[in-house]
Write a structure and sequence with these properties.
Two copies of one chain form a homodimer. Chain A is of the alpha/beta class. Chain A folds into two domains: 8-184 and 247-271 and 338-355, Rossmann fold; 188-244 and 274-335, Dihydroxyacetone kinase, domain 2 (Hypothetical Protein Tm841, Chain: A,domain 3, 2-Layer Sandwich). Helices cover 29% and strands 27% of the residues of chain A. Chain A contains eight helices and 16 strands. Chain A has helices at 11-22, 84-94, 108-123, 153-166, 171-184, 232-244, 291-307, 338-345; strands at residues 27-30, 35-38, 48-55, 72-78, 100-105, 128-133, 185-191, 211-214, 225-228, 249-257, 262-270, 278-285, 311-318, 328-335, 348-349, 354-355. Chain A has a six-stranded mixed β-sheet, with helices on both faces. In chain A, helix 4 (153-166) packs antiparallel against helix 5. Chain A is globular, with a radius of gyration of 19 Å. The model of chain A has no long low-confidence stretch (mean pLDDT 97).
Chain lengths: 357, 357
């Protein structure tokens, strides 16, 4: 294992310290428990958007803290869920009186811990909503997941809902928008190589010299299948069609009800993409794949969408939700209506995503 | 070799096609000869800034074409200099009557071909200036270079001089500023792994499981030495001190003289950094190293600068001048005066670098 790290136990802490020193204008970092908050938190009267999860996916989530995106991020150790006290303390630190919205990627540990944090925050008088992101069309259940995993749509949701919160949306409006973004977003990933978790010291899995894996998870969870290497066009087509031809996805999720002061079950159905849809297309590097290769993927993706009658109206291309130094990429297509596009285009100033200001 | 590519001969062309499809609001791409121009080129009355070089360093240079940065970029094949006709045609396409400034990284092929292009453009009545970037403190001469190589300062020069051109600087003022940025900028790189040039199909060099190379070039040219793996702090200290303790650098370069219609020799001396200096600190991924590890490097770099009395007033952290999928990083420190900071902070809208608009 060769990485630019010091002691293995200090990896996440030191990376966060580096971020704090680099971006004091955008964010601040608390330790014990650890969470990242925007520099001007709490913003009075604004809904506070909080996400988090295991580290190793940078810039997500800490790099998306700042004006127009997240109010707080709770980083766990590498590929390890953060604890409820991180989320609870973050909620108290950023609540500006309008409530907090948790954006939770669907991994069992994240879900459980964010649920506990929601209950603790509610008990303190903070209004809470919690929306699950489960957009990975690759597999139904996975190593750390009941149901679909939460992947690329998370980045888009953080941007879009962050802008809505900035614009004065109420907690319920922010939750509705987050639910819609998740409903309209679908992703699929692939890996050319494994990554190496520092504490493990060896690759999470092995891929042969002529192999890739389609449908891989962002922690190296098994995907759909391992195949002999193909061209960028062939791989892009496999990924794009898996997303575009994915059927309706139905499941039951738990959401917090501030009136009842309890969890309620909500039936959700994500409709498939169809001809005539406008989308935001997000081509993401898993970390080790350079942006040049992402453009080859984007070229084919644009052609496929065009042939399917799907119009790409915005795009995001680069390393935004990574798996350490894993080589590979993911594609996310998010059906975009006027509300989504308006908040996508709004200004954002974070270390990882910035435009319009 | 596993990469997201199709036929090896089409790699650069298809990546550029992807970029053109993704960013029509920012840039356009011409083929045969190949060059990237900003979408609204030529901008009448504005100095046009042109750079270029071998591909494989994305987002540099094509990803830096757009408002507030480059007017044109000329991409060669991977790690191969572009040809004079690319640069000449680009100059004709973007000249808005105020002349063109070539920013040329110091590699023998790039230098020769940009010189030919300058002569051709001048013969067509276009005012030309050509400024060499030679900021790599690692080695005096190198595999493809007489004198120091041009590396990370190029990105900063493109941003700063691009903003000055946007603000109405004359060709001579732009050239003076570019010369100053190069004078004040110093870089050093390191590699954890090699990269693989698609046409070669195998790694450019081999590094052992416990080795890194300090002072590496962006094409995998040999650096100062290969060492057993060290911690991020130790590696950062080696790199930072090599830059901070670098002495004055004197050499003679050729610049174009529009009055004489010929090349003239110019004596240049870059002074060393010293306590009291303010700097822009640029921590760059060579492609395969994720941004999380760059923050560990930045953390130590900030501490070292502080101890040396050097104040980091701005930073840039991410993959901006890469070597395909090479793992490793580089550090650039650019002494920054008010003029440099003003143009650093100015708006920029390119695929690879964007803020303020």
């Amino acid at each position: 294992m060769k990485k630019l790290i010091n002691a293995i136990d200090d990896v996440v802490k030191e990376q966060l310290e580096g971020m704090a020193v680099a971006h004091p204008d955008m964010l601040k970092i608390h330790f014990d428990p650890t969470f990242v908050v925007r520099a001007d938190a709490p913003v009075q009267g604004k809904v506070a958007l909080i996400s988090g999860g295991g580290s190793g996916h940078e810039p997500m989530h800490g790099g998306f803290v700042g004006k127009g995106m997240l109010d707080a991020a709770c980083p766990g150790e590498v590929f390890t869920s953060p604890t409820p006290d991180q989320m609870y303390e973050a909620a108290k630190a950023v609540d500006g009186g309008a409530g907090v919205l948790f954006l939770v990627k669907n991994y069992t540990g994240d879900v459980l811990n964010f649920e506990t944090a929601a209950e603790l925050a509610f008990a303190d008088g903070i209004k809470v909503q919690s929306i699950l992101i489960d957009d990975d069309a690759a597999v139904k259940d996975s190593l750390y997941t009941a149901g679909r995993r939460g992947v690329g749509t998370t980045v888009l949701a953080e941007k879009i809902v962050g802008a809505a919160a900035e614009a004065g949306y109420t907690l319920e409006q922010c939750a509705d928008l987050a639910r819609k973004v998740n409903k309209y977003g679908r992703s699929l990933g692939m890996a050319l190589t494994s990554c190496t978790v520092p504490a493990a010291g060896k690759p999470t899995f092995e891929l042969g010299e002529d192999e890739f894996e389609i449908g891989i998870g962002i922690h190296g969870e098994p995907g759909r299948e391992r195949l002999h290497m193909k061209t960028a066009d062939e791989i892009t087509e496999m990924m794009a069609l898996a997303i575009i031809e994915d059927g309706a996805y139905s499941r039951t999720v738990r959401e917090w009800d501030n009136e009842a002061g309890d969890w309620v079950e909500v039936e959700l159905v994500d409709p498939p993409l169809q001809a005539g849809d406008q989308v935001i297309a997000f081509v993401n590097s898993m970390g080790g794949t350079p942006v040049s290769e992402l453009y080859a993927v984007y070229r084919k993706l644009a052609e496929i969408c065009n042939n399917k009658g799907i119009t790409i109206v915005r795009n995001l291309i680069g390393p935004y939700i990574t798996s350490l130094e894993m080589a590979g990429c993911s594609i996310t297509l998010l059906k975009a209506d006027d509300e989504i596009l308006k908040f996508w285009d709004a200004p954002v100033v974070t270390p990882g995503l910035r435009w319009g200001a």
